[in-house]
Specification:
about 190 residues; mainly alpha; Double Clp-N motif; about 60% helix; about 0% strand; repeat; Clp_R_N; Peptidase; Clp_N_dom_sf
Length: about 190
């Protein structure tokens, strides 16, 4: 599948691995893909993010991602579902952090100690984003998978990255409208 990735999409995948390495994460996940997308400039994905006003809001997105990590990687929908079962996640987080320190529920971070020589695998969610990006490209009859397809896949998949993007005005519908028409400027 990677032979179908554009230079920009490959740069996002490499950037995601880099984000995982810098944070000491055991696996590359969807959050790392989102952060790598936010790093891009001059690509169709970065055009969509800028057009939707999200390009200058990286700090806010990083804070939202950090808060989700603090909740053990659970989205607000997950938190609400647990609340419906009588489970107060904020109380659980408080108790765990009281006993083990702030951020103890952070998912996948190995503390960032020493260098690792082996490759980090892609988490199932990140693999799903890559698969969905292929589907997004095929649905648009695009011959290659670009970083815009990775962005579309992130927005179409339930979870924390889609939630963070939506909170900043970046939804599947908005990205599609910006990239493929519907009254707004079209990416070249």
């Amino acid at each position: 599948m990677f032979e179908r990735f554009t230079k920009d999409a490959r740069a996002v995948v490499v950037g995601a691995v880099g984000h995982a390495e810098r944070t000491g994460a055991e696996v590359v996940d969807e959050e790392h893909i989102l952060l790598a997308l936010l790093d891009r400039e001059g690509s169709r994905g970065s055009f969509a993010l800028a057009s939707l006003g999200a390009a200058g809001r990286r700090d806010s997105m990083e804070r939202s991602l950090a808060e989700a990590r603090r909740r053990g990687g659970l989205s607000r929908a997950d938190t609400e579902a647990l609340s419906g079962l009588g489970i107060d996640l904020s109380e659980i987080v408080s108790r765990v952090e009281e006993a083990h320190g702030v951020g103890a529920l952070g998912s996948g971070n190995g503390g960032g100690g020493g260098r690792r020589s082996r490759r980090r695998p892609f988490a199932p969610g990140a693999k799903d984003v890559l698969t969905r990006s292929l589907r997004a490209a095929l649905a648009r009859h695009d011959r290659h998978i670009g970083d815009e397809h990775l962005l579309m896949a992130l927005t179409a998949r339930p979870g924390v990255p889609a939630e963070v993007l939506a909170d900043h005005g970046v939804t599947y519908e908005a990205v599609t409208r910006v990239l493929y028409g519907g009254g707004e400027a079209k990416a070249g």
